[in-house]
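Observation: inputs received (chain + pyridoxal-5'-phosphate).
Thought: call the complex predictor directly.
Action: predict_structure
Action Input:
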Amino acid sequence: MDIKENFDNIKKQIPSFVTLVLAAKTRTKEEIIQAINAGATDIGMNYVQEAEHLYKDLGSQAKNIKWHMIGHLQKNKLNKALPIFDSIQTVDSYELAEAISKKASTDNPTIIFIEINSARESQKAGVMPEDIEELIKKLASLPNISIQGLMTMGPASNSNTLRQCFKETKQLFDKINELNIPNIKLKTLSMGMSDSYLIAIEEGANMIRLGTVIFGPRG
Ligand SMILES: *Cc1c(COP(=O)(O)O)cnc(C)c1O
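Observation:
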């Protein structure tokens, strides 16, 4: 796998307003550095501990990267997570947002995205689409956090369901912005992975999270 070639090819396929987040779980430092040298600016991590190691390993380079938490975040990991991550894309409860709000700093509010369970799969993380409005209204007054986006994984199944889930997530995104809730202006819609990013962009994503198409299959 030529990581630079993969990265360049994808950048050519996608509009410039779409942010490409490297989904870097299980990849080596060397692989990730190749992607950074090819131009990657954003890294998504699923585990706090893995992110800590990578952050240290990258040294001064780490500061030039935007770090996104894209895995489930446990409240007891917040002290370690907050100094690393610029954004937490997987907030799906008032309790987690409140815990972040208590620990984040006023000078440097933590960017959070609400994760939507767009496929309504009971075993999956995320807020049910019908509950998002109430949750965001409750979160709007919490200090030290800035709610800037929605994130969804979508279903693992066929691409028609997938497209429908992405479409509905975009509709929710627009609807929330139309409500003009004080403090709430969503900017980022994070959806689409290696097998779905083109569909996601067609349906309104402006952030995609890619692992396999950049780095090759996970070993
Ligand atoms: C692994 C992962 C991705 C990327 O998956 P690929 O299919 O390898 O592109 C995107 N989002 C999340 C939350 C992930 O865990």
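Thought: report the result.
Final Answer: The pocket of pyridoxal-5'-phosphate is lined by residues 23, 25, 46, 70, 153, 193-194, 209-212 (CB under 6 Å). The beta strands are 19-23, 42-45, 66-69, 87-91, 110-116, 145-152, 188-191, 207-210.
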